[in-house]
Every structure is written in C-alpha cells, then in structure tokens.
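re: the backbone from monday

yeah here it is again, tokenized this time
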C-alpha cells in the first residue's frame, strides 16, 4: 500500500495506535491530536493538502500554536505531518503576521529543547519547508517534493534568474526526497508505505534528546555544500546605485562574496562600538550565498556587541534551481535560528525593511528579530509580483501599512533612518 496516496485521516490512523483530538481556539484546516505509538506519546499536527493546499493562515497558525505549547507543557515530542504549500497568500498581511509569531514560537521552543520530528509524504513548499528545516529529523520517501519555491515557479523563473531553461523532470529530481536525503542528514529516506513511515517514527521516538545541529555545525554543513555543488567565491556586486538614499554607501564594506545576484554590506564599525550594522540588498532575490554570509557574520560577532541592525531590500528568497539544489530552506532556517539566538542572549536585533521584502527572507528575519520595522516608503508582500505572474495567479492586492501593523507583520513604521544610524 502506497502510504502517500492515503487520505490524511487514514495516514494518522495507520501511524498511531490511539489519538485524542486537542481543543483549539480557532477552527482551521489542520488536524491536532495527541497520539501514541508503542506506548510512546507525541503531539501531532497534520496538514491536509486537499484543503487550501495545506496552506497556513491565521487559524492554522493558531492550531500550530496549540500543538507547540501542548508538546512543551507535556514534555512530548512534536510531530508535524507536512503536506503544505506554505503561507496562505490570499490572506495577505494576516498570514504574514500569523506565520511570523508561530515560527518564532517554534524557534524558541526548539532552543528550549523541544524535540521536533516531521514527515513529508507528497509536497512541502514555502513556509512549510522552513518548518521542516527547523525540525530535528524529516522523514521523506524518494518522490517527496521539498522546496522554498514550488516546481512551477522554479521552472518559470529559472530562465529569468539563471538564464537557463529547465525541464519539469529536472526540477522534480532536485526537489525529491532522495536528493534531499543525499544533501542533508536532517532528511531521512523511508519506503513509501505504512511500515516505512511508522518504523521511522518509532525509531526517532526512541531518542529523548533534541537531535538538531548547533549553529556552528549547521554553518559548516551549509558552507560545504557550496564546494560540493561547484559554487566558488567570486566578487559580489550590486547594480543598485545606493543601499538607500539616506545611507552613505561609502561607509559600508563587502562581507564574504560569492555571487552577483545579492550583496551583503557591512557598516565599518568603530573599535569599541556596541552596534553592528548590515544591509542585505538585491536586484532580484536573496540567494543561499548572501543568506549564509549574513548568518555567518552575525554568529561571529563578539560578545561586546549588544545591538544589531539589519537593513533589507530584497523582494523574496531566490527561486533558482541552483539555490534549491543547496536546499535553500535550511539556509533560511539557520538564519532565523542564528538571529533568534542573539536576541535570546540579550542582544537587541532590529530588522528594518528599507525597500521591498517578502517570501522566506521576510519570514525568517521577522520571526527572529527583537523589533521589525519598515520605512514608510517600503513595501512587504507575501510573494513578489514576478512570482505571482509566473504562477499565473492574480496579483495580490498591495498590502497597506495599516494591515501590516494591525496583523503584527511589522512592529512600527519609520519615516527615515536618523534614529537608527545616530
């Protein structure tokens, strides 16, 4: 019996011996239960791709919140059955704000020691793949599809980003569970049957400790992938005339340089200064290399730094096949965790949108930041217009400043940078 072809209710029944529904404040499309497998208990949250693509809106984020808090309170592992298209685009700012807070909650719970196991039977995209990438272990079958951008978007925009046409089969080969397991130890390959997934969960539940890697080990793993995939250091540049009109670009130097699609600038810091400032700017999208540059720079900061400013101007994460070959969601999850660890250690991390932002880069930084601000001239979208056009979806209405503030997607608006750079 092919496990991935079963409907969600039958999958849950096949995996667990007994399940009890958990009460949630909101009625959403997720299934939240406490289940047992061979006398081992866990909290399970399951996504149903047949309901709105398994996407995450405010109600689903509320259900995920119940699952996380219940698992922590009962000292049980959290198991996520991830078949999801990611954040629910039509709900706009409300989805952005809801995902910001629930992803932050999961980051904090992970730091406190919550054991998180996930499984993907069919597909897991966008914010869902970031949930997978923060898990200790993810069970996949050979044909599971995991990526930040969906296959159709990758294929449509690859010519634009990479100058290379790619076939559907080539995209699916890169995104499949077999390839993901070969790239990352986090992803473990199982047979696509009840015995495969049930046996994998049973094995993982036998461990009581958190199985995740440290930030430093994660950075080593991410850096190693560049060489393994033929990505070599090069002079990073940006075609932007300036980072922002009110920022003196001459005072910024380059960080580590890898590609020409995105640039990480570092403000020259005076000796003894307690503040570190970075600007991540892109002509198109934030790629794996620039994300790696940023989290590595932040992780290397001395303990004397008590304030970190991160200016961002990039519409979204990269949809290129080369970035997905590296498993982009793990770069974004590592960035989120690295920044959040700084916040939890007492460092004030202020992220400020100085141009446009959205997608995975906004999700990672907004969840991790101590404070998320936006210039009044800035903009935030769930997905950039180029992505919506490529997927032949209607352009989502412009998200207003009022909607961003009311949803909690951002904390405040600034007219200029004088208070930040003073």
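seq for it, each position gets an aa:
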């Amino acid at each position: 019996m092919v496990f991935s072809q079963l409907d969600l209710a039958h999958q849950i029944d096949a995996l667990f011996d007994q399940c009890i529904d958990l009460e949630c404040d909101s009625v959403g499309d997720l299934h939240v239960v406490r289940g047992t497998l061979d006398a081992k208990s866990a909290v399970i949250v399951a996504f149903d791709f047949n309901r709105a693509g398994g996407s995450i809106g405010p109600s689903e984020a509320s259900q995920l919140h119940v699952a996380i808090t219940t698992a922590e309170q009962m000292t049980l592992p959290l198991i996520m059955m991830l078949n999801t298209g990611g954040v629910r685009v039509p709900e706009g700012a409300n989805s952005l704000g809801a995902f910001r807070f629930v992803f932050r909650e999961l980051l904090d719970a992970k730091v406190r020691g919550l054991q998180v196991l996930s499984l993907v039977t069919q597909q897991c995209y966008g914010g869902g793949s970031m949930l997978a990438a923060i898990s200790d272990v993810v069970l996949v079958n050979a044909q599971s599809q995991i990526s930040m951008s969906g296959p159709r978007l990758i294929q449509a925009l690859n010519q634009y980003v990479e100058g290379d046409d790619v076939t559907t089969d080539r995209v699916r080969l890169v995104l499949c569970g077999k390839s993901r397991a070969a790239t990352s130890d986090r992803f473990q390959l199982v047979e696509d049957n009840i015995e495969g997934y049930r046996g994998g969960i049973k094995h993982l539940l036998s461990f009581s400790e958190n199985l995740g890697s440290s930030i430093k080990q994660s950075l080593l793993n991410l850096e190693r992938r560049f060489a393994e995939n033929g990505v070599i250091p090069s002079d990073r540049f940006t075609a932007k005339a300036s980072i922002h009109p009110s920022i003196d670009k001459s005072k910024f130097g380059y960080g580590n340089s890898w590609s020409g699609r995105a640039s990480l600038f570092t403000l020259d810091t005076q000796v003894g200064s307690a503040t570190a400032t970075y600007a991540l700017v892109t002509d198109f999208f934030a790629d794996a290399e620039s994300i790696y540059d940023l989290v590595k720079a932040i992780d290397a900061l001395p303990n004397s730094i008590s304030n970190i400013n991160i200016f961002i101007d990039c519409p979204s994460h990269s949809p290129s096949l080369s970035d997905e070959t590296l498993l982009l969601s793990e770069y974004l999850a590592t960035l989120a965790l690295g920044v959040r660890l700084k916040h939890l250690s007492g460092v004030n991390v202020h992220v400020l949108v100085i141009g446009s932002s959205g997608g995975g880069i906004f999700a990672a930084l907004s969840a991790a930041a101590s404070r998320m601000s936006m210039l009044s001239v800035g903009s935030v979208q769930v997905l950039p217009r180029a992505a919506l056009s490529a997927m032949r979806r209607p352009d989502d209405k412009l998200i207003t400043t009022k909607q961003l503030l009311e949803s909690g997607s951002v904390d405040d608006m600034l007219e200029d940078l004088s208070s930040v750079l003073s």
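The first helix runs from residue 8 to 15. The chain is about 40% helix and 20% strand.
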